């Protein structure tokens, strides 16, 4: 039995870079989640009636309650079958794989990814379409419009489904199938990578350390690295998913994965280190006393793709988000394959992947992936690196240095100013945009500004245009400074400043990025007045 509940719309349910993210307290308001899910179902009604959906989340606070609610709404909206990850836990890339494997109509992922969790933290919800990828902007905008006018939702009577026990359950006419998602994902990875070879390398003594940050990848990482690949027990740290991520910030970068970074800095530390984020789609790669920038990681994977089984026939093209460094562009040029530049957010890669225009893609924000799913995939990237290490028998640092010598190095850094005043942040962006004309020809850090623009993207597959995706200050081909406001935060605004310079002089190739980029970092402040507008003297996070 289901009922129709009368409701009033909320005006703030616009999905951002990756779904709708709000503080838990916002999601706990009566009808808030229900309204959004119904708005979504109203927009995709013709796809979901009688069809299969995949449902799960990163295990953060409110995940379990939200899953029970969504199951009841799915039943009342006549969805046929819902596949739920055991305990409600399902990594983002595993959901993407499951949608594709089952030819499901789509999936719902409950995650605020790298944002902190717990009662005081954030919650989020995202819809992925039939191809396994994040809903395109056209759909998220329709959901937003619908959410502003919704006046009813359909929901089945409360019935508790035991999501901790794999099996099949019935909720009115809805079939609920609770599965253990880890095994399916681990099997998938064995088709792409040479597990035998990696196992041998680990047996020979290569030491790895993986930090799951008490988020969703813990069970996957234990099954893959320790059980299947034979890494010693304890190679996976913080492997138990917790509703508040142990109080941490499940963001694999130099600031928030500090414990792993410290371990890798030690002279007797492991040879290879990696971490993932809340929902398992990000990856950070470290060597012994060496950090691989995500932009370099993408370029290295592209240049070496044919060395791993899943990509042995070569790659057809690559794509990177606009603020990602141009390291991969040079690899694409050398391979004579196309390289696409998209706005920030994985949803923009979907069309290119579906149309077989690209095989690999990535973002500077610790996101790397391929056509195997339609999300970035943290553990996939880690396995790709391990496979490369096993084949090349070199250290992480040597592989990257060799890459720089061959292609040049795109020295890169990103500076984040978190939780700044939203009006000040928009003021900075507007003032900078207004000064574009006067900037051309100015000399900063010894380089002359050749162009300044507000990045817009024309999707070559569906012809859609997306504007206002970041302000770019270009210094010919040599350097870039990009200013962008985050679309995933829930408090105030976050300013991201991306700074990049191509370095081909061999003597400097190995130096620290913050040192090599010092004058450009100063130029960013001169050009945009960061201190003046934000009142901040230094960024919160440097990567
Ligand atoms: C950030 C990253 C972006 C990424 C997005 C979602 O967005 O910059 O590259 O796609 O997070 O990643 P923003 O708008 O805050 O810059 V995740 O792992 O949070 O799903
Ligand atoms: Co994520």
TrEMBL record:
PROSITE patterns: PGM_PMM. Its cofactor is Mg(2+). Residues 1-16 have a biased composition (Polar residues). It catalyses: alpha-D-glucose 1-phosphate = alpha-D-glucose 6-phosphate. InterPro entries: A-D-PHexomutase_a/b/a-I, A-D-PHexomutase_a/b/a-I/II/III, A-D-PHexomutase_a/b/a-II, A-D-PHexomutase_a/b/a-III, A-D-PHexomutase_C_sf, A-D-PHexomutase_CS, Alpha-D-phosphohexomutase_SF, PGM. Residues 13-152, 184-286, 295-407 form the Alpha-D-phosphohexomutase alpha/beta/alpha domain. Its EC number is 5.4.2.2. One of its GO terms (biological process) is glucose metabolic process. Gene3D superfamilies: Alpha-D-Glucose-1,6-Bisphosphate, subunit A, domain 3 (3.40.120.10), Alpha-D-phosphohexomutase, C-terminal domain (3.30.310.50). It is an enzyme of class 5 (isomerase). GO terms for cellular component: cytosol. Keywords: Carbohydrate metabolism, Glucose metabolism, Isomerase, Magnesium, Metal-binding, Phosphoprotein. It comes from the Bacteria. Residues 1-21 are annotated as: Disordered. GO terms for molecular function: magnesium ion binding; phosphoglucomutase activity. Belongs to the phosphohexose mutase family. This is phosphoglucomutase (alpha-D-glucose-1,6-bisphosphate-dependent). It comes from Acidihalobacter ferrooxydans.
């Amino acid at each position: 039995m289901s009922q129709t509940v009368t409701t009033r719309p909320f005006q703030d349910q616009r999905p951002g870079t990756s779904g709708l993210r709000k503080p838990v307290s916002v999601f706990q308001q009566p009808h808030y989640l229900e309204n959004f899910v119904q708005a979504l179902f109203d927009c995709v009604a013709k796809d979901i009636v009688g069809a299969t959906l995949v449902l799960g989340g990163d295990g953060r606070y409110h995940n379990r309650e939200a899953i029970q609610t969504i199951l009841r709404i799915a039943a009342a909206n006549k969805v046929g079958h819902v596949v739920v990850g055991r305990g409600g836990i399902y990594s983002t890339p595993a959901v993407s794989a499951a949608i594709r494997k089952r030819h499901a109509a789509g999936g719902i992922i409950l995650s605020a990814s790298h944002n902190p969790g717990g009662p005081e933290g954030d919650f989020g919800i995202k819809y992925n379409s039939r191809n396994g990828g994040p809903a395109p902007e056209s759909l998220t905008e329709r959901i937003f419009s619908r959410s502003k006018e919704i006046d009813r939702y359909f929901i089945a009577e409360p019935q508790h489904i035991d999501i901790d026990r794999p099996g099949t359950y019935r909720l009115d006419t809805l079939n609920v199938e609770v599965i253990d998602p880890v095994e399916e994902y681990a099997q998938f990875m064995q088709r792409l990578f040479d597990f035998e070879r990696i196992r041998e390398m680990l047996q020979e003594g290569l030491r790895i350390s993986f930090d799951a940050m008490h988020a969703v990848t813990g069970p996957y990482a234990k099954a893959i690295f320790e059980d299947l690949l034979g890494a010693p027990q304890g190679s996976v740290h913080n492997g138990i998913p917790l509703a508040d991520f142990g109080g941490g910030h499940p963001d694999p970068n130099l600031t928030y994965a500090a414990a792993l970074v410290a371990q890798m800095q030690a002279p007797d530390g492991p040879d290879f280190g990696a971490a993932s984020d809340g929902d398992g789609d990000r990856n950070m790669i470290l060597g012994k006393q060496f950090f691989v920038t995500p932009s370099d990681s993408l370029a290295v994977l592209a240049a070496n793709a044919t060395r791993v089984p899943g990509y042995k026939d070569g790659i057809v093209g690559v794509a990177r988000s606009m603020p990602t460094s141009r390291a991969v562009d040079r690899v694409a040029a050398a391979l004579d394959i196309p390289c696409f530049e998209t706005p920030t957010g994985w949803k923009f890669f979907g069309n290119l992947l579906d149309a077989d225009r690209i095989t690999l893609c990535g973002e500077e924000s610790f996101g790397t992936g391929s056509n195997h799913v339609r999300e970035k995939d943290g553990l996939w990237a880690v396995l790709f690196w391990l496979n490369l290490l096993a084949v090349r028998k070199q250290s992480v640092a040597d592989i990257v240095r060799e890459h720089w010598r061959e292609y040049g190095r795109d020295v890169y850094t990103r500076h984040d100013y978190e939780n700044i005043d939203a009006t000040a942040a928009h003021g900075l962006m507007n003032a900078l945009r207004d000064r574009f004309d006067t900037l051309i020809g100015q000399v900063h850090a010894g380089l002359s500004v050749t162009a300044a623009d507000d990045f817009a993207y024309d999707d070559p597959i569906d012809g859609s245009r997306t504007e206002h995706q970041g302000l770019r200050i270009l210094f010919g081909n040599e350097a870039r400074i990009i200013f962008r406001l985050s679309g995933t935060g829930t408090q105030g605004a976050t300013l991201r400043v991306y700074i990049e310079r191509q370095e081909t002089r061999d003597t400097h190739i190995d130096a620290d990025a913050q040192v090599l980029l010092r004058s450009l970092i100063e130029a960013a402040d001169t050009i945009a007045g960061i201190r003046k507008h934000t009142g901040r003297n230094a960024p919160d996070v440097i990567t």
